[in-house]
């Protein structure tokens, strides 16, 4: 019960609690997965923007958004709370977990500065997706990160909007969901 009381409004846990359902029942109706990079390089404005985007999405689409944070490991966050930046960028672990939910109908969003530990492994996993992965780049203006994010979107026929101000992240993803 403790976890549910501390969950963010609109999160999978909170929606289950509000509706008197099991978490698994709410998950069956979820249609959005938001993968959020929580590696050390995401400190500061990128982290703040990601947390605000998660809150906004969960509030606007309660019980529909499944949060997956990744750093050294990828973890489902049914309580809707990001734990904060630490560790390296194991995007492969995140993509492997998301492949289990890829049914051709799920909407995937990847928020990152695009610096995974294993770029080739990430490309290989992305190439196995049926559903598009829409990427949102929140890293520095220059560098390989944006190219990595664009390639993941291209491989999955997703949308890559390029660099985005982290504080506008929630507004951007809400717009993409309304288009879908």
Average pLDDT confidence is: 88
* Secondary-structure content class: alpha/beta
Proportion of beta-strand residues = 15-25%
What's the name of the CATH homologous superfamily? von Willebrand factor, type A domain
Computed Rg = 15 Å
Strand order of the largest sheet: 3-2-1-4-5-6
- In the CATH hierarchy, the architecture is 3-Layer(aba) Sandwich
Q: Which regions have little confidence, pLDDT < 50, spanning 5+ residues?
A: none
Order of helices and strands: HHHEHEEHEHEHEH
Largest beta-sheet characterization: 6 strands, mixed
Shape: globular
User: Total strand count, please?
Assistant: 6
How helix-rich are the residues, as a percent range? 40-55%
How many domain modules?
A: 1
CATH class: Alpha Beta
Number of helical segments? Answer: 8
Head-to-tail CA distance between termini = 35 Å
| CATH T-level topology | Rossmann fold
Walk me through what this model shows.
The chain has 180 residues and is of the alpha/beta class. It has one domain (2-179): Rossmann fold. It has 8 helices and 6 strands; from the N terminus they run αααβαββαβαβαβα. A 6-stranded mixed beta sheet has the order 3-2-1-4-5-6, with helices on both faces. Strand 4, helix 6 and strand 5 form a beta-alpha-beta unit. Helix 4 (45-60) packs parallel to helix 8, helix 5 runs parallel beside helix 6 and helix 6 (119-126) packs parallel to helix 7 (145-156). The radius of gyration is 15 Å and the shape is globular. It starts with a helix and ends with a helix.
